[in-house]
Amino acid sequence: MYIGEIFNQWRARRRVGGPGAKGALPPTVYALGATSMLTDVSTEMVASVLPVYLLVALRLSPAEYGLVDGLFRGGAAIVALLLGGLLTYGSGRTKFVAGIGYAMSMMTKVLLLASSAFFAIAASLVLDRFGKGLRVVPRDAMLAASVPRAQLGMAFGVHRAMDGLGAVSGPLLAAFVLWQIPNGYTALFALSLVVSVAGLLVFIWFVRHPAGAPDAADEQVPVPVPRTPLAWRSHLLHALPPRCRRLLFLAMPLALFTVSEGMMFAHMQRSFDLAPHLQPLLPVATATVFLLLAVPLGWVADRFGAGRVFCTAHLLLLPLYVLLVAAGGEGASLWLVGALVLLSGGFLAATDGVLMAAVSGAVAPASRALSIALCAAALALMRLLSSAGFGILWDRVDIGWAVAIFGAGLSCSLLACWYLKPFEGLAPPETAPVAPQSLA
Questions:
Q1: What is the 3-class SS of the chain, one letter each residue?
Q2: Which of 40, 248, 313, 439 is the most exposed place for a label (fewest CB within 10 A)?
């Protein structure tokens, strides 16, 4: 839904004139977008072939694949997100920390080329997610610090649009490589490494460390003080005010009972016996639906509220779960693939970045990095438990029972969100408190 903000703010600038409603985005936003695009191309080239590579080539069980998928979705990112937030929080080292994260993701492709053993692949995925987790917080903090508040949605929208382009291009490249070279996973991993190196070079040469948002004059300027010990409780209260904590606690069960794309694609591959070079096209279709629906859903969120769109998107997961079970039946047909892809892409378009945007807008800029880190780490933990739990249920019981349990949990979580309305009452950025500037 970040991409929808591009349309919303363009429309707002046409309605309202003045300095706060116009102005081009700084080059740093586009440089960060290009870096994320190239890195995402590299990562998605690998991620799009994981189901067929691990389940068919390496013959992993659903439980083992669920653990790997959980590590890829969360795993090491939990620790890395917190570490990235703490290193960024009040330190001014955002580019350095983000650069380390991009470099670690590049090294994962070297590990994939070095060995095809399961443990080497698992270690590379952990390292990749650790690098992603380490760079997310400082990258988003740099984006937020590069533009005034009036352009936050536009900056994140442009960045997510370029990131989405990488999510489409990566699987297409993977499908082309496997089409030209059957079982050519080594060539695919080598090309992925080249693209990852290109992304790191763009980051080093073209991304400039922002000195602060253009309208930061209204913020309190920190006065140099001795680094005295401050209670962690004080930092956490500033980073996650009560309303933000309430939003996070209600969003965590939703993430826990959301079946990952990887598990869904793995089941579809088994049900339809897709050729290896066709497997990467599933995430391409999902990403395409995401790009097509992001702007319309952003307009709907602007009109009716992001919270309503966010909860409605999770409600649409229930028919997706029904179709997921139907895909394993004897009468399964390819029209189910289109329905699953459409629902999955629409869900991503309606939920991507909504929680981070809500939390970012409700805290002071000084606390933003730590706030994003805490929220993203909590959600990453839920995704790890989600994939691992779904894989175990699928392997030990049945895919139908796994989907039924996840559907029941999701329904209960949606009822809690519907009645408690977690998006209401979030403090606007103008009233958010200023956090302490140093950690002991």
A1: CHHHHHHHHHHHHHHCCCHHHCCCCCHHHHHHHHHHHHHHHHHHHHHCCHHHHHHHHCCCCHHHHHHHHHHHHCCHHHHHHHHHHHHHCCCCCHHHHHHHHHHHHHHHHHHHHHCCCHHHHHHHHHHHHHHHHHHHHHHHHHHHHHCCHHHHHHHHHHHHHHHHHHHHHHHHHHHHHHHHCCCCHHHHHHHHHHHHHHHHHHHHHHCCCCCCCCCHHHCCCCCCCCCCCCCHHHHHHHHCCHHHHHHHHHHHHHHHCCCCHHHHHHHHHHHHCCCCCCCCHHHHHHHHHHHHHHHHHHHHHHHHCHHHHHHHHHHCHHHHHHHHHHCCCCCCCCHHHHHHHHHHHHHHHHHCCHHHHHHHCCCCHHHHHHHHHHHHHHHHHHHHHHHHHHHHHHHHCCHHHHHHHHHHHHHHHHHHHHHHCCCCCCCCHHHCCCCCCCCC
A2: 439
Distance separating alpha carbons of residues 191 and 283, to the nearest angstrom: 19
Interatomic CA distance for residues 431 and 434, integer angstroms: 9
Four-point Cα dihedral 386, 388, 392, 394, nearest 10: 60
Distances (CA, A) of 185 to 167, 182, 280, 299: 19, 8, 13, 41
Amino acid at 245: R
Q: What pLDDT digit, counting tens, does each position of 265-293 carry?
A: 888 877 777 788 888 888 888 888 887 88
| The predicted structure's pLDDT at residue 217 | 38
pLDDT for residue 431 is more than 50:
no
Residue 13 in tokens: 């600038």
Q: What whole-number distance in Å separates Cα of residue 34 and Cα of residue 162?
A: 7
| Residues 354, 253: Cα–Cα separation, whole Å | 16
pLDDT in tens, 330-365: 445 678 888 888 999 899 888 877 787 778 777 877
The one-letter code for the residue type at 265 is F
Residue with structure tokens 């890195």?
Answer: 39
CA–CA separation, 111 and 107 (whole Å): 7
So what's the pLDDT on residue 60?
Answer: 81
| CB neighbour burial string for 350-360, b if at least 16 within 10 angstroms, e if fewer | bbbbbbbbbbb
Helix 94-114 × helix 185-206 angle, to 10°:
160
**Which are the contacts of 410, defined by CB distance < 8 A and separation ≥ 6?**
254, 257, 258, 314, 317, 318, 321
